[in-house]
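User: Batch of two.

Assistant: Item 1 of 2:
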Amino acid sequence: MPNRKPEELQQVLHYQFKNPALLRIALTHTSYANESKVPTTHNERLEFLGDSVLSIVAADYLFHQSDRPEGELTRMRASLVSEEALFQFANEIQLGEYLRLGHGEELGGGRHRPSVVSDAFEAVIAALYLDGGLETARSFILPFLTEGKTAEEDYKTRLQEVVQQDPNARLRYEVESESGPDHAKQFTVAVFCNGERLAEGTGRSKKAAEQHAARQALDRLQAKS
């Protein structure tokens, strides 16, 4: 059973659904639908739609907030709509506590699994969009889309740009260790340049650990210069 009722989430969203069933569907994982004794709709279709709504809102926001070139805007949008970012956004509203999960998924830590929670976040966006239109969805999304949440997430690209000043330089990322249960993995990744170990980083995903390693490498290179 969920820790909190789906209806309670409306207060967090600051939005009253005309069709509350949309929100219930958005919070329903496939595992719950599969175990239900009555036909139950899960959130995968809403997730598909929410991904597109999020992408257009993020693209529109970045386009009007910055005159950066297309390549940088594309990278910034990618960081905003990544699983890591969505998991962070979802945790800000404790979305995992409202999910309807099957028994096995519940026992397996589904409420804290980034893939499950971030997918539900996209589904909630779609539910808002279908119930209240694009502006309702935009009003929900925009507070999450701040420069502060994107500026620090593309250290790999910045490190690549620094090392490419030497045409022969080649970066390589290597997972050195991973620990913890499936729902709370911790990865340690090292970054090498032409075989030289520059730095290491940790994170709850390989991508996050790579970004942390790249940030550490940038700090080290800047300290040398």
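Item 2 of 2:
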Amino acid sequence: MMIYVHMPFCRQKCLYCAFYSLPRPKEGIINKYVDALCCEMQLRKNELPDQPVETLYFGGGTPSLLALRQISKIIETLCHCYDLSHLEEFTFEANPEQLTNDYLLGLKHLGVNRLSVGVQSFSDADLRFLNRRHTARQAMDAVKAAQDCGFDNISIDLIYGIPQSDSWQENLAVAQSLGVQHLSCYALTMEPGTAYARLVEKDKIHPCDEETVIAQYNTLIHWAKQNGFVQYEVSNFCKSGYRSHHNSGYWDGTRYMGFGAAAHSFGYSWRRWNVSDVEAYIKGVETGTPFSESETLTSADLYNEYVMTALRTAKGVEKSVLELRFPAFAQHFAEKVRQFVQRGLLTQCGTAFRPTPQGLLMADGMAAEMFV
């Protein structure tokens, strides 16, 4: 089982962010939110069958806005509600400007063994464009400080496809020089409701053309091979032995509990999601009124989700998984998959159908054509 804890606050909204988060939180609201989080954990501790927690992930928003005492309180509550004795991976997302030595040592003391640092770029011009608060120097210093404090499993986020930027190759070179173990690399996309989308609609920003974005993605693929990084998902690259177990669990269909506003949970046959509103979430937890919705998943839903996530990974779709978990749709998949093998987008490796480099770029489109 996996646990995800959502921290939906940030100092300011990034240009591209489409996730639910509350910028510039009011004084005292984070304390109230932590109390509600702990209460939700108590309320839902029997929702899934009792089994050890293997991965824990604090995401956001900006989890590093939490004080160490607040993180400690959340962990103590989790230990009371769940079996964390077999915890293998504890990931904590953080922004570079908040990673002081004292904070890093505190995270280490609390059991965090994997840091995910929101770098986005090592170019100050890019960072200003993206509305990030940190500088390139702060990003580099934060990674080095984490290493000095004993963190040996560090992931950084990078963004490519930034308009009028020529820093992509330099970003990769800096990442290599820092010796990080994991990269999550995303193309800058125009998500509805974001500041980026509004500026594009007003013709104040012109996005990169598709050819440039694909060229930068191909540069990333080549760089990864040259520098010992394995691509195990469309956007994720790691040194041997450093893939994210938590994120891999999402793609493999592992059950998980999500706590906090906008957090999702998955229990094989159902999915649940909390309200995307901090005040409504806190009030719901405090008063016992509904603060989430849920749905029952059909076998077709689960098949579609498996195909969608598997085609985004290097493992691809396993024939044995199809036949064991989705026997009713195995023939449907067999009929659909042939065209993509013929077009060079998938290759058959034993009993698995794995995306080629070109296929990874078209994974979502392939999945949609295989849906039932």
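The mean pLDDT is 94.
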